[in-house]
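Researcher: We plan to redesign the surface later, but first we want a full-length starting point. C-alpha cells attached.
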C-alpha cells in the first residue's frame, strides 16, 4: 500500500493539507465523525482548539483500532460551527495536528455547519484511511 501526496505547482501552496492523495493497494477504513467527547460521552473543553485536540485524538484512536496510524489518513473532513473561529486558531490547530498526527497531511476540507449532534460540540472530524 502506498499513499502519494500530490501538490501541483499550478495550485496555491498547500499548508497543513495536501491537494490530492493517491492511494494504491491496501484496505480502506472509513472513520466516523469524532467530536471532543471523552470516554463518558461528555464534551471536553469549551474552546475550539481544546475540542479539536480531543476530536483528533478520538479519530486517531478509532484508526489505531483498525490497525492504522496518522500516515495512513488519505482524507479528513473538518466540520466547524464557526469557520471564522477555526481560521483565527489555525496556527494552534496546526501545532496540535503536527504533535498528534505528524506532517504527512491528508487531503482535507473545512466545512461550516450550523450545529453538530452534541450542541456543545464546536468541531467534528471524519476521515478515510488506506491501510496495507
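Model: Full-length starting sequence:
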Amino acid at each position: 500500500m502506498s499513499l502519494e501526496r500530490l501538490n501541483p505547482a499550478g495550485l496555491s501552496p498547500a499548508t497543513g493539507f495536501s491537494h490530492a492523495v493517491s492511494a494504491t493497494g491496501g484496505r480502506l477504513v472509513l472513520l466516523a465523525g469524532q467530536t471532543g467527547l471523552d470516554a463518558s460521552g461528555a464534551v471536553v473543553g469549551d474552546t475550539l482548539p481544546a475540542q479539536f485536540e480531543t476530536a483528533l485524538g478520538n479519530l486517531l484512536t478509532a484508526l489505531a483500532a483498525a490497525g492504522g496510524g496518522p500516515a495512513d489518513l488519505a482524507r479528513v473532513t473538518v466540520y466547524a460551527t464557526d469557520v471564522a473561529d477555526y481560521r483565527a486558531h489555525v496556527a494552534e490547530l496546526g501545532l496540535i495536528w503536527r504533535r498528534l498526527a505528524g506532517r504527512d497531511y491528508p487531503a482535507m476540507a473545512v466545512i461550516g455547519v450550523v450545529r453538530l449532534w452534541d450542541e456543545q460540540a464546536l468541531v467534528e472530524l471524519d476521515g478515510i484511511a488506506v491501510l496495507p
